[in-house]
Amino acid sequence: MILFLAARPVTAPPVRPAPRRRRARFRPFAPYRRIFAIPGTRAFTAANLLARLPMGMLSISAVLMIAGSRGSYALAGAVTATGLAATALAGPWTARLVDRYGQARTAVPATALATLGSLSLLLCVHYHAPSWTLFASYAATATTPNTGGMSRARWAHLFRDDPAARHTANSFEQAADELCFMLGPVLATLLCTALFPEAGTAVGAALLLTGVLLFAAQRRTEPPVAARTADRPPARSPLRLPGLPSLLLTFLCTGAIFGSLEVVTLAHADAQGIRSAGGAMLALQAAGSCAAGLLYGLLRPSGHPGRRFLGCTAAMAALMLLPLLAAGTGSPVTLAAALLLAGMATAPTMVTGMGLVQSRTPPGQLNEGMTLAVTALLGGIAAGSASGGWAVDHLAPGGAAYGVPVAAAALALTVTLLTSRRHPAAPVS
């Protein structure tokens, strides 16, 4: 038997073909799927988007409503400017209450008061009340909470140990901001012109209140309130935190870009005889920023965030030259393309800047810190609008007024350059 077995030819066992490796699926939006896989994130995001849409509606609705009823754009502009100034003053205080007592307990009554202000404005305009009542009513809307900041605070709490996920979430939030600023004015104009002048304000107020109520109902994703003890010293204002004031100054300059670009673009379109296309051109700028924000969220952040912020502001300053050059050609198509490209540096700059605000602000003051950033933006928008209006009236025709947003972008870059070495990190635990 042994000899028989030994005499058998030795054959190798059959070689089975190696299993084919499955190609890894190309999933470009996997980072976004990952953050929205957390229970409760889709619900609070949908509610927050509903509450955030009116931020692009209410001011233009007020302008159209007041100007249509009183026949004065000067009065309409003065009323909205008063509301903007009141928001800049009241916004940080509302955010401080949110940090101290929680989002649901603070946001709902603050929104109810703001909604009453909008309804009061509507009634005062409709029944031809004295002009001072318009100012008082619109100033009452200043208690509107920073809904975008509250949403970012939830992401920061959920992904407090995951910087890459926070980057993706912040990118989505910035894209959502741009989407609201793109759709809000269009919806407001449609409502005020197709239905009746008060329709934009009424719908905007209803959306704001409904969205905040739905958002506040999502309690499981709400960040906990920081415990306060007797031996714990009171938190100092975020304005005194290292590196934050200089960052807010950059946000102020960035807001000036937005404000001046809006006024100059509308005036340039009017001068070219295409007044109705001005809003579409601005929508293209917001669309470019929205697309860039979503793409930026797919990238894994590398390097120091301070250096990334410097690179983003440099790109923003460089791309802002394109509308200035395109306006000189006299071609609306060229200008529209330039605005689309110029918007692509906006969202990455804002995403990185908001990330720096979060890293330099204690968790218990996060809403206040981000609201200060929004306040700086609003102040810059107001200053930019005034500067852009002056440039339109006093500079030579042909698009020279586009030098105002270019100057604001250069100033933002200069501030970032001067302060980036002074505060290279300045993180707050």
Automatic annotation (TrEMBL):
Listed transmembrane segments: 49-67, 73-95, 107-129, 199-217, 238-258, 278-297, 309-327, 333-357, 369-392, 398-419
InterPro entries reported for this sequence: MFS (IPR011701), MFS_trans_sf (IPR036259)
Entry keywords, A to Z: Membrane, Transmembrane, Transmembrane helix
Protein name: MFS transporter
Biological classification of the source: Bacteria, Bacillati, Actinomycetota, Actinomycetes, Kitasatosporales
